Amino acid sequence: xxxxxxxxxxxxxxxxxxxxxxxxxxxxxxxxxxxxxxxxxxxxxxxxxxxxxxxxxxxxxxxxxxxxxxxxxxxxxxxxxxxxxxxxxxxxxxxxxxxxxxxxxxxxxxxxxxxx
Amino acid sequence: xxxxxxxxxxxxxxxxxxxxxxxxxxxxxxxxxxxxxxxxxxxxxxxxxxxxxxxxxxxxxxxxxxxxxxxxxxxxxxxxxxxxxxxxxxxxxxxxxxxxxxxxxxxxx
Amino acid sequence: xxxxxxxxxxxxxxxxxxxxxxxxxxxxxxxxxxxxxxxxxxxxxxxxxxxxxxxxxxxxxxxxxxxxxxxxxxxxxxxxxxxxxxxxxxxxxxxxxxxxxxxxxxxxxxxxxxxxxxxxxxxxxxxxxxxxxxxxxxxxxxxxxxxxxxxxxxxxxxxxxxxxxxxxxxxxxxxxxxxxxxxxxxxxxxxxxxxxxxxxxxxxxxxxxxxxxxxxxxxxxxxxxxxxxxxxxxxxxxxx
Lengths: 116, 109, 240
Hints:
C: 7 strands; about 15% strand; elongated
């Protein structure tokens, strides 16, 4: 193989699959941290509360917005796959994929408006 | 990936689809009401419903994420299959243990 | 006054390099015409494959400006807007020389997917009466026109990342045979495509479907295979 970058990777559907994979990986890496944070409640409500206050700062909130986006885009991407695999083929896949990305962005934006 | 892993991954995905939507709603509710730790814990303490909901979520995500990470490791790293399987089983167990601990933390403590 | 194309062709084997040639641009020129011009008038040592020249054999598939295509059916005017062409061998296959790949692994995976018809009758039996409008015959017909050009295989990133993956063409052929009433090899076939490297490795990137010159849809065929193998597994007809 010559190893040249393959141009079909500019397809919306390839990108959708890649976003789905990367978002899944990011969420998988985030989850242990999320569980450890919630586990702070074992040390008492005050401990969890101080963490929640720490997480009020803008940078953390920005990261949370990113997480909400990843979460939503992974869900919608997954639904897309479940539809492809379990129902008859439908055309308009690219439009569906783009719609999924747009919806995720809207949800993340709504979250942004709430927390800032 | 094979048919068995595929079924587990798609089944846990289907189970989690509604759970994820509820969780997003919970996140939005909690942030809109500016809930403190005390507020949150007062709702989850002793709640069988929340324990069941998040317990199911933890179980499903541990299986789903482990299989997903397995795909990534087999396709994007040169690790041999046995090593990959060992890693992802470990990862799934870590998620399950930490996850159930977190559920216990907010329901029992 | 003819304009000239700047054409980069892959020369050598795995550790080769692109070499640039100047080729006169002509009306209605195809990429195959360009490659042929180089071999006939500039460098006779260039190795490449073609046969029919008219888009029915699939032999001339190469990577053109980053995408695998049939070079005889690719007009230069459509792909070389700025007068530049980069032509390489198909990806995901071992390289023999220059633009010619070794198609052996592609066909080997065809065999592994049980892509061969398993007969249930002999020449002494009456000809099977197959109705063309049954759902299974329609499904087979929609997927049957594959001529093994390798474009889907070359385009597939899952093939690239997973050496065991049977690939879109082999799986699509398995799908057509699963839908063939005359075929008697379905349990073995489902078993063959349900393991590692089988249909479940597909991530629905859909590059195959987008680039197939015969407008086939391997993504849809593979999705159907996922359903079939899942059902067979749950019924205990196949094991993993």
